[in-house]
Amino acid sequence: MSQGPPRSQFTQSVLAVDNARKQRRTRLLAGLAGLLALVLCAGGWMVWAAADDGEAGNQGAKAVQQAPDDIRNTVETAPSSPVGHLAVDYREKGFEKRFGRDASVRAPGTWATDKTLVRGVGGTLKGFELGTSKEVWSTDLGGPVCGTTRHVTADGRTAVLFQEPPKPAEDDDKKSDGKDKKKDGKNDDKKGSKNKKKGSKKDDKKKSDDKGKGKGKKKGKGKKDRADTPAPGPCTRLALVDLDTGKKLWQAALPDAEDASPTSTNVTLTRGTVTVAWGRGSVAYDMKAGRPLWRNTRPSVCENAGLAGGNVLLALHRCGADADRTYRVQRLDPRTGKPLWTYNVASGVQSVHLVSSEPAVVAVAVRGSGVDKLLALDDLGAYRSTVDMPEGRYIDDCFTARFGTVETCDAIVAERDRLFLATKPKDPEVNRIVSFDLATGKVVRRFDSRGRGAMYPLELSGGKLLAFRGSADGVAPDAVVSLDPESGRETPFLLFSVPDAAGPVKPGETDVLVEGGRVFIAPKELRAERGEDGEGAAYGALGVEGA
Hints:
mainly beta
C-alpha cells in the first residue's frame, strides 16, 4: 500500500513533539484532506458526504455502565471529522540489528484503553501512551507469549498465556527459576508488585540476550526462522495484566499441562473468570485473586479443544480419534465448570471451531481444512440455522490462526440475529460483505465494495457494522467504514493511510482494533522495514483518531 501523495498541513499531527516526529507523521497521514475532497468531487464516495446528522459531533465511544469484572462493551460513535490524525506510531527500533534482516518475531495481542495501546511482542508486553507514542511501560513475562484473548474487562484487564522460561545453564538463573516455581499458585497482588520491581533488571538482561541473538542471526545468512523461536517448552504460565500500568496482578502455573503447546492452547475471559483449555485439560481462575475455581485435567473420553468467552462461556470437546472422532459444544457455568446444555455436532466432520459464544456460532469443516458450514444455536443449545459456505466464496481463516484454537475467525462477525461474512475478492479491490439472518440462514443484504477497495467486517457496535476497507489504488485512503444493516447505507468512520512498512492489512495477518473512537492497525509478526528510511526498525502499530 502506498503512503499517499505529498504532505498536507491539514492532516499533519498536532501532537508532534519535534521536527523529526512531525516529518514522519506527515508522511504517514499526508494528504488525507485533499484525498477526501478528491474522491468526493469524483463522485466515487459521494455517499459518505450524506452522513447522518445524528452522528455528527459524536466522538469516541459511549460509556456503557458495567461492573469492573464485566467483559468490556463499548458503543463506538463516529468522530466529528473522519479525517484521521495520528494517535500512536510504534516502531521497534534496532530490530534488524538484534534479530537479523530476514527474521520475524511473533507479536500476538493488541489491546487498547482510553489511555494506552498495548502490544505483545515475543515475551514482552509493551504499553504506549495515546497521543505521544511514548512507551510508558514494558513487562517481561519471562517466556514467549503463546496465547491471548481479545476480551478485556470493563476496567482494562486481560489475560495472557506464555511459555515456561527456558532453563539456562547459569547457576544464578537456575536458582531464580526455582524460586519462580515455588511462587506459582500463590496468586496475589503483592507478587505482581514484586515482579514489577524486578522488571528493570529483567529488561536489561533481555536486551543483552537480544543483542546476542542478533549477532548469532547474522552469521547464519539465508535463514528465515523466527527470531523468537524458543527451546521447546509447554505453554503453562498464565497472567492477568492491567493494560494501563503493565502490572501483573497475579500469575499461575497451569496444573498437569506439560503437553500444552502454543497451537493447542487458548485463554479467554468471561464475567469474573479466566479460563484456559489445552487439549487434555482445562482450568478456571477467579479474576480478582487468581484463586482456582475448577479444573478438568484428566478427561476420560473427550479432550478440551477450546473455550470461547465473553458474556457466556462455551466449551468445545473433541471425542474419539480419526474416523470415529465426534465433537460436542457445551455451555458451562463459569464458576463451577458444570455444563448447562450440550449440543452434539453431527458425525462425519473433520474439524469444528467456535466462532462466537453469544450468539453461539459453530464453524464446521466437512471436506477439508476450510469452513463448509456455520451452525447457529439458540440460548438453550438447540439447533437454529445453517449458513452455507461454498468453497472459495468467503474469506475463511478460522482454522489457520497462528495462536489459539477458537475465537480466531477474524473475518466473521456475529450478533444476536445476524451474521456477516466477506467474500474473497474477485480482483484485489472488489468484493462484498454479506449479512445473513441467523433465524433462517438466508441472505439479508449485500454491501458491495464497488471497486473502492476490498473490505471485511470488524465488529458490530451500536447497531452498525464497522468494516475495514483497504485503499484501491494507493492514492485514496484506507478506511474504517460504518455499514447500516437495515438500510445498507455506508458512512465513513475514519480515513487514514497505512504505511507500506505495516504490510498489507489482511484477516488473520493483521490486528485491526476499533476502541474509543480510534482505529489501531498492528501486524501479528514483526519484520525489519526495507528501504533507506527503515533504519532496521520493525513496524509495530499504527493508531489514528478523528478531530
